[in-house]
Write a structure and sequence with these properties.
The complex is a heterodimer of chains A (about 350) and B (about 250).
Chain A: H1 2-5, H2 9-21, H3 25-51, H4 60-66, H5 73-84, H6 92-109, H7 117-136, H8 152-178, H9 183-197, H10 201-215, H11 218-221, H12 224-249, H13 253-261, H14 266-296, E1 306-307, H15 308-316, H16 325-354
Chain B: H1 2-7, E1 11-20, E2 23-33, E3 38-42, H2 49-56, E4 64-69, E5 72-73, H3 78-87, E6 88-91, H4 103-113, H5 119-132, H6 148-160, E7 166-170, H7 178-193, E8 197-201, H8 205-211, E9 214-219, E10 222-227, H9 229-234, H10 239-249
Parallel strand pairs in B: 3-8, 3-9, 6-7, 7-8
Antiparallel strand pairs in B: 1-2, 1-4, 4-5, 9-10
Helix pairs in contact in B: 4-5, 4-6, 5-6, 6-7
The chains are: A mainly alpha (about 350), B alpha/beta (about 250).
InterPro entries (chain B): AAA+_ATPase (IPR003593), ABC_ATPase_HisP-typ (IPR030679), ABC_transporter-like_ATP-bd (IPR003439), ABC_transporter-like_CS (IPR017871), MetN_ABC_transporter-like (IPR050086), P-loop_NTPase (IPR027417)
Family (chain B): Belongs to the ABC transporter superfamily.
Protein name (chain B): Amino-acid transporter subunit ATP-binding component of ABC superfamily
Chain lengths: ~350, ~250
């Protein structure tokens, strides 16, 4: 009995390690050297980040500079600038709440129970209204704060979410137009998609922020922030449209024929038969595109917006904390990581969920 | 409307022409199918038999001639096409079930969104037809979890849930393993015995002998021969038909 329960797994693992890393004297030597290097690096990193680091602001920048490790005091002293940018100090709780609203809205709309037209509209409607009222104010006794003062994490999240929210439906429209039976429609759409894709994002953002106001009448311009979001949504949709189209090509022609034979209309075929299957095919590439777009929000800095990366620059760039840029960037990297990693895990969850019927 | 419909033929095809580019796929086809009639269409591959029945519900667009289904002419009028598709069910060689829906949902979706039936009614109907094709216990499974024969029976149930007046079968057993052909043919035989108007493209000559009112032989885009089964199998006149039959029945 004991032999059956205990014996097989334990020696198995040791045997396995031996076979993989210590099969010959030379291999054993290389393994030991690699191990030593790894231990050294991890130790150095931990020592810098934790054991010799300074966490409090009591000593000010001077105490930090004297210490051998990381200077996390800069985060403690400057986190508000990183998260909220130039938003008025007294009102930053509103920016924090707005971030929470966007995150809650995104999380809710990721839960399958909310995937009906009415519920998703309710979630997005409430979320968007909450964000806008909280950030902009001017009503309910909240002081007015213009878009030019928005910044930090709140701005990054806002740009990302609105880009996807506008860009995704636009991408589906473009993908459908591109597979139109009428050649002049499909070719024109193809030209638009390829045109947008061959321009760098920075030039598109610049055009929408700076050049467009000369071409548009005053009443059509809107705030620079919304023009920039529109440009970034257009860029997103050009890439996403090709991803959706690829997904559609993976759906056999028989699916649409069966739907036609049952008497379904064009929009019923698209909405109930084609798109659900196409989106399943396109899911891995779609998550990839979302991840890229999240990180590309940092490009809005060139048209003068202080999203989280630019706010980080401001946080250490004011003189006394100038030496602590590594810590600031590590902190920002951690924030990016939390969001992007959750996005990837959610993608993996969706893939598992959607593969239920697939065999 | 229904009273005038019930008097005329179910399907009337007059001088039907169909081209793929410069290839003449169907040449001056004439065919009239009465209500309740069972037609079997056979012929070598590439003879245009699938193309012909796909013209009946406009999965293929014809280039010449007239097709009238249940008194409604098939033309560019989208309303007419939709009306005809609601009344004409189709079963495909490769089943074409919707893989992202359960068997039950496959059967409920068209009645709900096309015929606007309430969900409860659609479900009752769906379960009744699944019972009829003898797989009620598979209702909550996905198509990918079923065998080919089971999938094809679900496809028949899905088409029947729209309560069509005509059923088209496009080589329904050609993609099946031999041991599953019988279970699908059984369902089709029962459907025939209940008086459904059926047009079947198939090479199952046993089925043709048992249920068909008329057998039609096509070759090179033309109807070559057309006769009741006994006559068709025993005394066909055309050389091409005889050659085809010897190949199909030969072993």
């Amino acid at each position: 009995m004991e032999m059956v329960v205990v014996a097989p797994p334990a020696p198995g693992r040791v045997e396995d390690l031996k076979r993989r890393f210590f099969a010959t004297p030379l291999q054993a030597l290389l393994s030991l050297i690699s191990l030593a290097i790894m231990v050294f690096v991890v130790w150095k990193l931990l020592n810098w980040a934790v054991f010799s680091a300074v966490f409090t602001t009591t000593g000010g920048p001077e105490a930090c500079q004297a210490a051998a490790g990381a200077c996390w005091s800069v985060i403690a002293a400057r986190w508000r600038i990183i998260l909220f940018g130039l938003y008025p100090f007294e009102e930053q709780w509103r920016s924090a709440l707005a971030c929470v609203a966007v995150v809650v809205m995104t999380v809710l709309s990721c839960i399958p129970a909310f995937w009906t037209g009415r519920r998703i509209a309710l979630v997005w409607g409430t979320g968007a209204a909450l964000y806008y009222v909280l950030m902009k104010g001017g009503v309910l006794g909240l002081p007015f704060v213009g878009e030019e003062a928005w910044g930090g994490l709140a701005l990054t999240l806002f740009i990302f979410v609105t880009t996807c929210l506008i860009g995704f439906p636009l991408a589906i429209c473009l993908a459908l137009l591109r597979r139109s039976d009428l050649p002049w429609i499909s070719r024109t759409t193809g030209l638009i998609i390829d045109g947008v894709r061959s321009l760098p994002l920075i030039s598109i953002l610049f055009t929408f922020a700076v050049v467009l106001p000369f071409a548009l009448p005053q009443w059509l311009q809107g705030d620079k922030l919304y023009r920039v979001i529109l440009g970034s949504a257009l860029f997103f949709s050009a890439y996403q449209a090709e991803i959706v189209r690829g997904g559609m090509q993976g759906v056999p022609a028989g699916q649409e024929e069966a739907a036609m034979a049952l008497g379904m209309s064009y929009w019923q075929r698209i909405g109930r038969i084609l798109l659900p299957q196409a989106m399943r095919n396109a899911l891995p590439a779609t998550i990839n595109q979302f991840v890229i777009s999240f990180k590309e929000t940092s490009l809005v800095v060139i048209v003068g917006f202080f999203e989280i990366l630019a706010s980080g620059n401001a946080a250490y760039g004011t003189g006394e904390w100038r030496f602590a840029y590594v810590e600031v960037y590590a902190f920002i990297a951690l924030i990016y990581f939390v969001f992007v990693f959750s996005l990837s895990r959610y993608g993996a969850f969706l893939e598992r969920r959607m593969s239920v019927g697939e065999r | 409307m229904n009273s005038t419909q019930s008097s005329g033929p179910a399907v009337r095809i007059e001088n039907l022409d169909k081209y793929y580019g410069s290839f003449h796929a169907l040449r001056k086809i004439n065919l009239s199918v009465k209500r309740g009639e069972r037609i079997v269409v056979c012929g070598p591959s590439g003879s245009g038999k699938s193309t012909m029945i796909r013209c009946i519900n406009r999965l293929e667009q014809h280039n010449g001639g007239r097709i009238t289904v249940l008194g409604t002419e098939l033309n560019d009028d989208v309303g007419n096409i939709d009306e005809i598709r609601r009344e004409v069910g189709m079963v495909f060689q490769h089943f074409n079930l919707f893989p992202h829906m359960t068997v039950l949902e496959n059967c409920m979706i068209a009645p709900m969104i096309v015929r606007k039936r309430p969900r409860a009614e659609a479900e009752t109907t769906a379960r009744r037809y699944l019972e009829k094709v003898r797989i009620p216990e598979q209702a909550m499974k996905f198509p990918g979890q079923l065998s080919g024969g089971q999938q094809q029976r679900v496809a028949i149930a899905r088409a029947l849930c729209m309560q069509p007046q005509i059923m088209l079968f496009d080589e329904p057993t050609s993609a099946l393993d031999p041991e599953m052909i019988a279970e699908v043919l059984d369902v089709m035989v029962r459907l025939a015995s209940e008086g459904m108007t059926m047009i079947c493209v198939t090479h199952e000559m046993g089925f043709a002998r048992r249920v068909a009112d008329r057998v039609i032989f096509m070759d090179a885009g033309e109807i070559v021969e057309e006769a009741p089964p006994e006559e068709f199998f025993t005394s066909c006149r055309n050389e091409r038909t005889r050659q085809f039959l010897s190949q199909v029945l030969g072993h």
